[in-house]
Design brief:
Radius of gyration: 20 Å
CATH class of the largest domain: Alpha Beta
Order of helices and strands: EHEHHEHEHHEHEHHEHEHHHHHH
Helix content: 40-55%
Shape: globular
Number of helices: 16
CATH superfamily of the largest domain: Aldolase class I
Largest sheet: 8 strands, parallel, barrel
Strand order of the largest sheet: 1-2-3-4-5-6-7-8
Strand content: 5-15%
Number of domains: 2
């Protein structure tokens, strides 16, 4: 029996943190895992060509403590994607996701990402090949359309194609991608959001798991926008204001979180920082993901400044983090 015909154990996707290029690397995911024990985390997108030909540990290595964590792949060759998916599955990722939403120039030139919205049959071929190669779920992440496509036509067509190949989960960024005229950064905010079309997709395909992504500014607003959908995915807010993740375990999963304050989160993350420094990782590679932890709180500016200016220096260690943490504490005043 093929993998596509077996029952695969799905991770809980009620809340997830989006895959974000240059951001959600293994150090970022380890930090986010301190803040939420139950959210599904995603890697940065890795191309199938790189995974099948490159240094696998450097590209997609991860610590089991990050689980549940999913691997996102980019590509358009079904056989190559199947091989890359198998590598990821063998490493222990709990899900393999195909990117059909990234609008960057590099992605367009490589014929993958958002430009694949125009080729739903090829997307279905890719997903089916991946699904048949692995024992974990394979999922789709897409936009609602690209350029002059009509989302009311393009999105249902894509979902129908992939559903017919046994793919039951789609994470939908509720914006078009404009491949001509907008930069990748502009594509994250300029095209208008259309949550209604994502809700309509769920109504049309009630047996599919549909996750909402795009423009979710907080856990609270995401829950308000969820409606009939199966989950929400936070992106930039989770990165720039990571303390937002500390409410996820209680609000979504009805579980306690032992980390009750940003200070406690820093202390809980210290053993990981020390272990990575011992392996030769530079402090800045780790702490750059922590800059927004105290966003909106006293001392946030000092925290960011100390980490930004000092963590980049050669040979520095956790003492820099401790100095930055001390700078966030309110000064004691005498009675």
């Amino acid at each position: 029996m093929s993998a596509a015909m077996t029952t695969k154990i799905n991770p809980d996707r009620r809340f997830s943190v989006a895959p974000m290029m240059d951001w959600t690397d293994r150090h970022c995911r380890a930090f986010h895992r301190v803040l939420t024990r139950h959210a599904l985390l995603y890697t940065e997108m890795a191309t199938s060509a790189a995974v099948t030909r490159g240094d696998v540990d450097r590209l997609i290595g991860f610590d089991p403590e990050e689980q549940p964590v999913a691997l996102q792949l980019g590509g358009s060759d079904p056989d190559e994607l199947a091989r890359a998916a198998k590598i990821g599955s063998d490493l222990g990722y709990c899900e393999i996701n195909l990117n059909v939403g990234c609008p960057s120039d590099r992605v367009q030139s490589g014929k993958f990402g958002a430009c694949l919205m125009r080729e739903p049959e090829l997307v279905a071929d890719c997903l089916q090949a991946m699904d048949e190669a692995v024992v974990v779920p394979v999922t789709l992440k897409c936009r609602i359309g690209v350029d002059d496509q009509e989302p009311a036509d393009a999105l249902p067509l894509l979902l129908e194609k992939v559903r017919s190949r046994g793919i039951s989960t789609a994470i939908i960024h509720a914006r078009k991608a404009w491949l001509k005229g907008l930069s990748p950064k502009e594509n994250r905010s300029v095209p208008p959001l259309d949550y209604d079309i994502v809700h309509a997709a769920k109504a049309t395909f009630p047996d599919m798991e549909i996750i909402l992504n795009g423009g979710v500014e907080s856990l609270k607003s995401g829950l308000a926008a969820q409606g009939n959908l199966d989950g929400i995915m936070l992106g930039r807010i989770a990165y720039h204001m990571p303390w937002e993740l500390a409410g996820v375990d209680h609000s979504i999963f009805n579980k306690d979180n032992s980390v009750k304050s940003p200070d406690q989160a820093v202390m809980a993350y210290l053993p990981y920082i020390e272990a990575q420094l011992a392996k030769g990782v530079r402090l800045h590679s780790i702490t750059r993901h922590m800059l927004g932890l105290f966003h909106g709180l006293p001392g946030a500016r000092k925290w960011r400044r100390i980490l930004s200016e000092s963590a980049v220096k050669d040979g520095v260690g956790v003492e820099v983090v401790m100095v930055a943490l001390a700078a966030t504490q309110p000064e004691l005043t005498s009675a």
